[in-house]
Amino acid sequence: MRLKSSAVITGVGGFVPDTILSNSDLEKMVETNSEWIVSRTGIKERRILTDPMQATSDMAAAAVKNLLETANISAAEIDCIIIATSTPDHLLLSTASIVCDKVGLSNAWATDVNAACSGFLYAFTLGASLVESNRYKKVIVVGADQNSAIINYKDRNTCILFGDGAGAVLLEQTTEDIGMIDSVFKTDGHGREHLLVPGGGSKIPATTESVEQNKHFIFQDGRVVFKAAIKGMTEACTDILKRNDMVINDIDWLIPHQANYRIIHAVGDNLGLPADRVKINIERYGNTTAATIPLVLWDFKNDFKYNDNMILTAFGAGFSWGATYLKWGKLR
To answer: Where would I find the Beta-ketoacyl-[acyl-carrier-protein] synthase III N-terminal domain in this sequence (predicted)?
Structure first.
């Protein structure tokens, strides 16, 4: 038994919009074809939030409500909520505060984290640290993004990749030998020009010119990101193994950011992990950025057993990358 408390996942929730954007749909929008998309990315369809009255906060709130219902706890019990997102409802107002209102979290400290596709792991580590401090008993961590709001559906290099969705986990204290054990994170700002939304911030404020130049859509240098993502996630997972005196056979599950089917398999192959121990759902949702990892946990929660060794790993804009090692607990 541990001498101090740690943070363990005791609940998971998720939400994806009803509207499906298939590869066949994209064939009618840009010059591409389903066979090519699947062979290059592994994606067959993605979910899109089409209601103009809804935004990232609505998906996040739906994921939190799903979590609260399945975990059978009330909103009043939540001490803190952290939202990882790159597509906030507003530039000046945290999405977390909006979610608090929509879910009825009247007693919670709330904040946002923006680390793009690495965001959920950053927020997860922050939430776990709050639980481990003994000052917060129940912390919800959410990854949510409405990528369709920042996608140029005339750009075939990006529109085929991204979808919308939200996933959430509940973190609570435990003194058992489970929960979050270790995390490794790194950031190298030299990669920032290869993956970003150039406009909308203080550097390139919204103007008629910036809109006409498509500065408010995602730009990605796919070749650079592809290589850096494989390298970054492989190194982060290797660091986790070394720091905890483990070998790859000690790991039951790899939960990678769902960026691209080929990236995921390359990381697994580099680590020497059998494909059946790498969880993938990108074929149904595409890349939902901060939501990918919690959506994998939500989708496959019934596959995980108590004390399973898991590595969660991600790579995102910045560049930012990292990995988290945890032991699976018991869900409420």
So the answer is: 112-189
Name the amino acid, one letter, at 76. Answer: A
Q: Looking at the annotation, which residues are catalytic?
A: 117, 257, 287
Residue 186 CB burial class (10 angstroms; 0-12, 13-18, ≥19):
middle
- Inside any domain, residue 256: yes
Residues 72 and 144 in one domain: yes
Residue ranges making up the domain that contains 175: 6-179
Report the distance separating Cα 95 and Cα 100, nearest Å.
9
Residue 2's pLDDT band (cuts 50, 70, 90): very low
Q: What are the residues facing 138 on neighbouring strands?
A: 172
CB 286 within 8 A of CB 45: yes
Domain endpoint, select from 162, 179, 196: 179
So what's the pLDDT on residue 179? Answer: 96
Report the CATH number at residue 25: 3.40.47.10
What gap in Å lies between CA 226 and CA 308, rounded to an integer? 29
Judge if 165 and 16 occupy the same domain: yes
Tell me the pLDDT tens digit for each residue of 67-90: 999 999 999 999 999 999 999 999
Q: Would you state the pLDDT for residue 3? A: 52
Start-to-end CA distance of the chain, whole Å, equals: 21
Question: 156: left (phi > 0), else alpha (psi -120 to 50), else beta?
Answer: alpha
Among 152, 179, 206, the domain-final residue is: 179
Q: Are both 22 and 96 inside the same structural domain? A: yes
Length of the chain counted residue by residue = 332
β-sheet bridge partners, residue 185: 322
Inter-axis angle of helices 34-41 and 261-271, to 10 degrees? 30
Number of domains in the chain: 2
Rounded Cα distance between 261 and 45, Å, is 13
Asked if 222 and 40 touch (Cβ cutoff 8 Å), the reply is: no
Residue whose tokens read 């008629």: 208
Do 101 and 187 lie in one domain? The reply is: no
